[in-house]
Give the backbone structure.
Amino acid sequence: MLGLNTHLGRKIWMLFFLIGSVVCATQAQDQKAKKVLFVGNSFIYFFNLPQVVSAMAETQGVQIMTRQSTVGGSSLEDHWERRKGTKTMELLTSQKWDYVVFNNHSRSAIDSPESFMNYGKKFAQKVKEIGAIPVFMITWGYKSNPLIQEPVTQAYLKLAAETGASFVPAGPLMAAARKVRPELNLYQDDKHPSSNGTYLVGLSFYKFFEQKSTRDIPHRLTTYDEDGELLYLIFMSQEDTDFLQNLVDDYDFKNLNK
């Protein structure tokens, strides 16, 4: 009887050990995962940019958990004032975020510069108050009007400098890619990114979050829906993938005015 109890005790101890190991591993994994909220409009949700960033990270064995608060054609003023059905103010305090990424309306920096600066500053301060890092995504010039890139870039750089926020040079990277490979279609229409454009922007966020080379990110990206069904996000040619990865890896994210 004593031997039986000892054997049973060992089994129970081993069961608790295994459960504890799983819990610890899960907790460690959650602690390492970066939690990112994307706030903006269709420049973010075209081709599921947040999910693309998460999928890129997963292929490299890291976790970037993303959510989004996006409404087509919305500005940061709309998000702050809770217009157009935006839920950003609620989402900001719904959980602990590591980063909150913002993009304003594509012409806001040019057409309404006061609103651009005012609400950018409001959100940067709000994000700092909740213990996260504010990040501004520098948007891109239109396919038909690349000349707006420079004033848009300078407006975001000024906003980031005055708020102590970070930035991701999505627009300048799009402009650089167009200059070198004008035949590579980065646009779905005159404004929104194609799958190529979204892949490029996704690479820029992966580099920003992980500070690592993008070279090993595959040219096909997938994810899973809530039922475990495989979803295909982006298909790229290997040639275009290599070009965009080299562009991002060699690009100086911090010194855009050089």
